[in-house]
Structure formats: structure tokens, C-alpha cells
From TrEMBL:
Topology class, membrane: Multi-pass membrane protein
InterPro entries: CS_dom, HSP20-like_chaperone, Tyr_Pase-like_PTPLA
Descriptive protein name: Very-long-chain (3R)-3-hydroxyacyl-CoA dehydratase
Domain CS: 5-94
Keyword Transmembrane annotated: yes
Length: 362
């Protein structure tokens, strides 16, 4: 006896963009589901209200749909999703006004139009938030980019100051004291580059890219660049003095340990020898560097007085000539004030790193 062709129970619900149909058939085999000329055709072998038979139905939709239905088989039913061509709310599912007897609302998924709009807005907001996060990058991606950027910055500075340090050391061993007097012409271009790039370090601290305090970084940047660009850079008479060698050598002596320490920190590495050098070398070298800077300022005062460079006369009726050496004397006071601030900052850093651990009280 041939199996009868029967119609299954079908339940439906909608959203603005989709239609959902639930066909009450279990153990479905060989489902044939398609859409042609805006009509959904369904035929499948399965167990329904009339037992194990071939069930089929046809539904002509109220409005246009996309002809690619998506279905999923479960043990108890067949779930079909159909995309509307235009996102809008339908007053009913089928073109014919009278609802087919086998068709009923799916109250498990049913929403009225206002609820569906709220759901649609929530989904759209979720989609926009996801796009916004993707455009901004995930926190892990941003952290990786920041570490990569800081690693490259510290690498470039390390290479620059290493070149200066090695150049001055080799020249001293070959030429002896004679190397002191042409230091500026040998390494000034690289020192200009490194000190201009050091502006980035202060900016990083100011905008929160690094956790370093701004003031010590700013004091060092302004102090070094004043010596380099004003005292040495504008006065040819200063460029041939031995003090240039000591200033440049002491600056680079600190940085060849500081920048590789920061590089390794970017990749979460801690080399104990380098860490100790980074927190210890400054103790003798930093005061010596400030002393060398002070000597360079003192040596430049008579030159600035003689040439009158950067000096000016106050306008009438005062008409007093203000020598640049007056500002240099003020700078000397500020130099040692900056030494105190930075020395205190570096000492605190070292104490946090190597401070004595409190003994436990029994």
C-alpha cells in the first residue's frame, strides 16, 4: 500500500528581515525544500500527525523573499529560515488572505512589531559596537602595538647612543687626548638626532603611553638640549673644547644601559646584570654629567659676553643691556636644582627595586 501524501503542521513567526517556519515532522529523510516564483515548496519523508508518510506543502509568500531557504533538521522538527528581500513587517505570511488550515503562529518565537523593532535595534547596536571595537582594535592588539612601538623607539635610541659611545672610546684609545678637541665634529650629528628623538620620550610620558613621570623626563630633555643646541651648537668656540667629549661620553654612558633595559621590559624579559647596571650606573655618572654640563656653561659665559650673542637692550626709557650670561648664571642654579629632582627620582626607583625587605616580626 502506497504511502499517502499528507500536509504537516507548520508554525511560523517573523522579524523585519526574516521568516521562521517550524515543520512538525520527526525522523525526516530526503527533505526537498526550495523557493520558486516566491512559493516555498516542501516535501519530505518523516513521522508526523499521520504516522510515517510523505508530507508536503506549498506556501506563496505575501511579499518577495530571497530564493535561498536555509533549513536545519532535528529529531523532532525541521526549522526553515527565509530572508525577506525588503526589511519590513508583514501583516500575514501568505498572499492569500485566508490562512491555510495546517499553518499556525509559532508562539515560542512570536513577537509583535514593536518588540521586533526593539530586538532589531538591539542587534544593530550590537553590530555597530562590534564594528567599533574591530576598528579600534582589541585591548590585546593595542597592547602589542604599544609594546612594538616602544621596543623600536628604545632600539633606535640604544643604537644611536651606542654608536656615540663606541666612536668616542675607539678615538680616545687611538688618538688619546687629541680626540677630545674634535668630538663635536665627529659625533654631533648623531647626538642631534638622538636628542631630538628624545622629545618622543617626554610625549610618551605626558600622554600616558609610558608610566614614567613627566617632570624628570622634561628636565633632562630641556637641560641636555640647552647644552647641545645653545652652548655647543651656536658657539663654534665651544665646539673645540675638551668638555664636549666628557658631556657626550657621560650622556651616552647612561643611555647604553637604560635603553636596552626598556627594550627587554617591552618583551617581558629581565636580565639581572643589565637591570642592576640600569639602576646603579647613574649614581656616579649622572652627577658627573651635570658637573660637565656646568663646566661647559661656565666656559661659555666669557665667550657670550665677548661676542654679545643673545644679549639685548631693554627699550626706552630703561635702556639697560641684558647680557645672555645673566641667564646662564640663573641656568647654573636651575641645573643643580634639576640634578636634585632627578637624583631623588632615580634614587626612589632604585630603592623600590632593591630596597631592603622588611624583616618579619615573630
Amino acid at each position: 500500500m502506497e504511502n499517502q501524501v499528507l500536509t504537516p503542521h507548520v508554525y511560523w513567526a517573523q522579524r523585519h528581515r526574516e521568516l521562521y517556519l517550524r515543520v512538525e515532522l520527526s525522523d525526516v529523510q530526503n527533505p526537498a525544500i526550495s523557493i520558486t516564483e516566491n512559493v516555498l515548496h516542501f516535501k519530505a519523508q518523516g513521522h508526523g500527525a499521520k504516522g510515517d508518510n510523505v508530507y508536503e506543502f506549498h506556501l506563496e509568500f505575501l511579499d518577495l523573499v530571497k530564493p535561498e531557504p536555509v533549513y536545519k533538521l532535528t529529531q523532532r522538527q525541521v526549522n526553515i529560515t527565509v530572508q525577506k528581500k525588503v526589511s519590513q513587517w508583514w501583516e500575514r505570511l501568505t498572499k492569500q488572505e485566508k490562512r491555510p488550515l495546517f499553518l499556525a503562529p509559532d508562539f515560542d518565537r512570536w513577537l509583535d512589531e514593536s518588540d521586533a523593532e526593539m530586538e532589531l535595534r538591539a542587534k544593530e547596536e550590537e553590530r555597530l559596537n562590534k564594528l567599533r571595537l574591530e576598528s579600534q582594535g582589541s585591548p590585546e592588539t593595542l597592547t602589542s602595538l604599544k609594546k612594538g612601538y616602544l621596543f623600536m623607539y628604545n632600539l633606535v635610541q640604544f643604537l644611536g647612543f651606542s654608536w656615540i659611545f663606541v666612536n668616542l672610546t675607539v678615538r680616545f684609545f687611538i688618538l688619546g687626548k687629541e680626540s677630545f678637541y674634535d668630538t663635536f665634529h665627529s659625533v654631533a650629528d648623531m647626538m642631534y638626532f638622538c636628542q631630538m628623538l628624545a622629545v618622543v620620550e617626554t610625549i610618551n610620558a605626558a600622554i600616558g603611553v609610558t608610566s614614567s613621570p613627566v617632570m624628570p623626563s622634561l628636565i633632562q630633555l630641556l637641560g641636555r638640549n640647552f647644552i647641545l643646541f645653545i652652548i655647543f651648537g651656536t658657539m663654534e668656540e665651544m665646539q673645540n673644547k675638551a668638555v664636549v667629549f666628557f658631556v657626550f661620553y657621560l650622556w651616552s654612558s647612561i643611555e647604553i644601559f637604560r635603553y636596552p633595559f626598556y627594550m627587554l621590559s617591552c618583551i617581558d624579559m629581565d636580565w639581572k646584570v643589565l637591570t642592576w647596571l640600569r639602576y646603579t650606573v647613574w649614581i656616579p655618572v649622572y652627577p658627573l654629567g651635570c658637573l660637565a654640563e656646568a663646566v661647559s656653561v661656565i666656559q661659555s659665559i666669557p665667550i657670550f659676553n665677548e661676542t654679545g650673542r643673545f644679549s639685548f637692550t631693554l627699550p626706552y626709557p630703561v635702556k639697560i643691556k641684558v647680557r645672555f650670561s645673566f641667564f646662564l648664571q640663573i641656568y647654573l642654579i636651575m641645573l643643580f636644582l634639576g640634578l636634585y629632582i632627578n637624583f631623588r627620582h632615580l634614587y626612589k626607583q632604585r630603592r623600590r627595586r632593591y630596597g631592603q625587605k622588611k624583616k618579619k616580626i615573630h
